[in-house]
Amino acid sequence: HVMVLLVSPFLAQKPALAAAPPTAPYQKLPTAFHDYTNFNVEPVRGMDYADDGRLYALNTHGSTVVMHADSTPAPEGQWPTLNNPVSIDVFGDRFAVLGGATHALAVHDGTSGAILDVVPLPREPGDLIVDQRADGRHIAYVASQAENVVVAIDLELMREIQRWKIPSESPRFLYLDTDPDTNTRRLLVAPLLSGNNSMPKAAIPDPSVPLALALGNVLPLEGFGGLPDEDLFAITIDESVPVVMPVARRAGTLLLEHAR
Could you report the per-residue pLDDT of 112-159, keeping only the tens digit for each? Predict the structure, then answer.
């Protein structure tokens, strides 16, 4: 048998689409120069202690939470949670968990492990911090790595109450800090990917070339206006209208006390 493939001449004559012109100068690095894309969900804040000393830890790929109340290897509690949990924070007699695959926040009972409520989140949540306010409210701050935002979730109302756009790529790590000048609290945000105010030249050498030799093939952007190269941001959460501001440049990618 002979198979004949007929191709329409119109397919071969399809015109190429013109690239859309840029609309504005770049404010951040538009492309991450990676050799591969990592689809593996990794824990960000994988464990936390309760006030009574109990340790809660995530089993990210088992989608469970384990609780240890003593020093023996076997946990005293083990419960299912959201798919591929990445962060946990204990507050009072409850704990909050972020689902890295579910893209949601779940509040669990700290004793039974039962899920009490769930609220959806922006895509690819990373770090989580629960702020226990003096008025008794609990506000969860969550970093979204895919949408480049930080959201505030009221854990009593179980809904998003505020959202901030972070002018960087993949905000991931969070830390509650006190401004030494104003004595007000601020939420520090460190992106997973941050620029170094340079970019590769067009003629890149073989990847195996040592760094010392490759430095000559890096084009500094300072003379061309540069990119912001802002590696740490602060959200002024104690102000009536919180704002996002850069607080560190040229610091490289920061990991805020996550022991990584």
Answer: 999 999 999 999 999 999 999 888 899 999 999 999 999 999 999 999
pTM for the predicted model, two decimal places: 0.74
C-alpha 97/C-alpha 107 separation (Å) is: 7
- The DSSP element (H or E) to which 64 belongs, if any, is strand 64-68
Please give the span between the terminal C-alpha atoms of the chain, in angstroms, as a whole number. Answer: 62
Place of tokens 């195996």: 208
- Segment (H or E) for 187: strand 185-193
196-228: burial string, b at 16+ Cβ within 10 Å, e else: beeeeeeeeeeeeeeeeeeeeeeeeeeeeeebb
Q: What does the alpha-carbon distance between residue 57 and residue 80 come to, in Å, rounded to a whole number?
A: 12
Per-residue pLDDT reduced to its tens digit, 210-245: 444 444 444 444 444 455 567 788 999 988 889 998
Phi, psi of 224 (to 5 degrees): -110, 20
Dihedral sign computed on CA atoms, order 120, 121, 123, 128: negative
Strand order in 159-165's β-sheet? 125-132, 138-144, 149-154, 159-165
For 118-143, letters b (16+ CB in 10 Å) and e give: ebebbebbbbbbbbeeeeeebbbbbb
- 66-88 confidence digits (pLDDT tens): 999 998 999 999 999 999 999 99
